[in-house]
């Protein structure tokens, strides 16, 4: 124990007591200065037979003299001792002048049996994880994924099959289309049927956050990066989406400085947290969506051309609902059960006349507007007596229909337009009163005989 103050030796001895790890320290001549009870148990001796003794007399296959001789470090070396199978780490000790003054031996496990138990525990957990990953995968199987996207029109069928194909690659996807056309639905479906399906899908609405928050939201921040920064820092959405997909919604609204940073991530697949210095590497698939015309934004200097070209790898342009009106009956069929479930109602279908009305509308809000209109119609229906939604439950569309008649009749005579309007109004009030002619005449302010004449004229009777 040459050169080691006795107080120091005692402090070290107290620090090294550890029932799971054998620890021994020798001085520069190989004499044991410190050994914990676990080590003494491993070598199968008494404390007196260990402390102060030459290490090779304590255990004849010790490697510590070699460490003293060479200054080597042994990490996780297999060491059989006294019937135990151990994994040990050995390293030299130097004083501040740089002279070698001793060596330490630390067994990682009391016995390899412990290591095996740990390895088994990890293997069991991995098996369990694989089971749940498979379970998740089967719930979101590819078939199920694209099945939620309703549409048999040729435009939608083509788009769905292209998206299915693209899902299998890791390529960046840009989804364009008017608001409410289903861009997010496509992004979700691509992720769920991709090989990344059992990793996260993280959505960021680039339009919803002010510029200074967007940066930390996307890239995270380090502790102390700004006032109010959380202790320990916070990972950003890119880190959270590692191995999965990040969905950058409303990318056209991303501020220009953020676009520059995003471009770097797209090129390098790495970034720095706000206030950080270390680069963070991620493996993330990027799906971006916008209802803006990015080319126009590039021309106006509001969107970086280089970022646009990076994003413009695979483009899925979702057609507006007015260009696929034939999908409306199917969409209605798919949306009604969802609404019934949410509103706790039991509407069975929509009359064919109402479907005709829906097919005449121009749908500026696309499928989202269709959902809203159906929800409003359910709220207008007398659900004790009616299980079917009819034209009268879509008053805004009826009004629109009358306006359309006037628009359609532009260029025709006033008498023609008035006749069309008269016919449409009578037809609607008749439906509203369940074909009660007396009531219809009253509501329209007509004498019964006048109504009968008009019914005959317009072939409504
Ligand atoms: N083809 C479709 N089949 C079934 N539901 C659809 C379809 N397209 C859209 N929807 C539904 O319409 C609503 C709007 O869709 P989504 O949010 O994906 O549109 P979006 O294009 O991302 O809209 P925004 O640009 O406003 O964010 C959602 O409830 C979605 O489930």
From TrEMBL:
The lineage of its organism: Bacteria, Bacillati, Bacillota, Clostridia, Eubacteriales. Residues 149-379 form the Sigma-54 factor interaction domain. It comes from the Bacteria. Keywords: ATP-binding, DNA-binding, Nucleotide-binding, Transcription, Transcription regulation. SUPFAM superfamilies: Homeodomain-like, P-loop containing nucleoside triphosphate hydrolases, PYP-like sensor domain (PAS domain). This is PAS modulated sigma54 specific transcriptional regulator, Fis family. Gene3D superfamilies: 1.10.8.60, Homeodomain-like (1.10.10.60), P-loop containing nucleotide triphosphate hydrolases (3.40.50.300), PAS domain (3.30.450.20). Residues 23-53 form the PAS domain. One of its GO terms (biological process) is regulation of DNA-templated transcription. NCBIfam families: sensory_box. GO terms for molecular function: ATP binding; sequence-specific DNA binding.
């Amino acid at each position: 124990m040459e050169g080691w103050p006795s107080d120091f030796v005692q402090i070290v001895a107290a620090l090294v007591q550890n029932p799971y790890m054998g620890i021994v320290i020798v001085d520069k001549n190989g004499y044991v200065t410190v050994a914990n009870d676990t080590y003494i148990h491993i070598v199968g001796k008494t404390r007196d037979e260990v402390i102060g003794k030459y290490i090779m007399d304590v255990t004849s296959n010790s490697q510590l003299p070699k460490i003293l001789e060479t200054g080597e470090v042994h990490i996780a070396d297999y060491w059989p001792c006294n019937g135990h199978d151990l994994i040990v780490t050995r390293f030299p000790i130097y004083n501040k002048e740089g002279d070698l003054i001793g060596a330490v031996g630390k067994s990682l496990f009391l016995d390899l049996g412990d290591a095996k138990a740990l390895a088994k525990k990890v293997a069991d957990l991995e098996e369990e994880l694989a089971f749940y990953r498979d379970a998740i995968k089967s719930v979101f199987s590819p078939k199920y994924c694209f099945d939620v996207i309703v549409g048999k029109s040729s435009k939608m069928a083509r788009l769905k099959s292209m998206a299915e194909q693209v899902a299998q690659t890791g390529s960046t996807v840009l989804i364009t289309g008017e608001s409410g056309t289903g861009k997010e639905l496509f992004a979700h479906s691509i992720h769920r049927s991709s090989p990344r399906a059992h990793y996260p899908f993280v959505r960021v609405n680039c339009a919803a956050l002010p510029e200074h928050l967007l940066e930390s939201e996307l890239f995270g921040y380090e502790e102390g990066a700004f006032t109010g920064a959380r202790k320990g820092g916070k990972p950003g959405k890119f880190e959270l989406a590692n191995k999965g997909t990040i969905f950058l919604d409303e990318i056209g609204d991303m501020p220009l400085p953020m676009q520059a940073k995003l471009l770097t991530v797209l090129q390098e697949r790495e970034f720095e947290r706000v206030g950080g210095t270390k680069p963070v590497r991620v493996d993330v698939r990027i799906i971006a969506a916008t209802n803006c015309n990015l080319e126009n934004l590039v021309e106006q200097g509001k969107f970086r051309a280089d970022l646009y070209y990076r994003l413009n790898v695979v483009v899925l342009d979702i057609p507006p609902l007015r260009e696929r009106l034939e999908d409306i009956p199917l969409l209605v069929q798919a949306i009604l059960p969802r609404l019934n479930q949410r509103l706790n109602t039991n509407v069975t279908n929509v009359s064919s006349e109402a479907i005709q009305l829906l097919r005449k509308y121009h749908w500026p809000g696309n499928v989202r507007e269709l959902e809203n209109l159906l929800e409003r119609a359910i709220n207008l229906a007398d659900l004790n007596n009616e299980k079917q939604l009819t034209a009268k439950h879509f008053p805004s569309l009826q009004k629109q229909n009358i306006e359309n008649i006037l628009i359609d009749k532009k260029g025709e005579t006033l008498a023609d337009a008035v006749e069309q309007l008269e016919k449409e109004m009578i037809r609607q009030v008749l439906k509203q009163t369940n074909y009660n002619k007396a009531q219809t005449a009253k509501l329209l302010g007509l004498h019964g005989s006048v109504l009968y004449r008009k019914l005959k004229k317009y072939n409504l009777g």
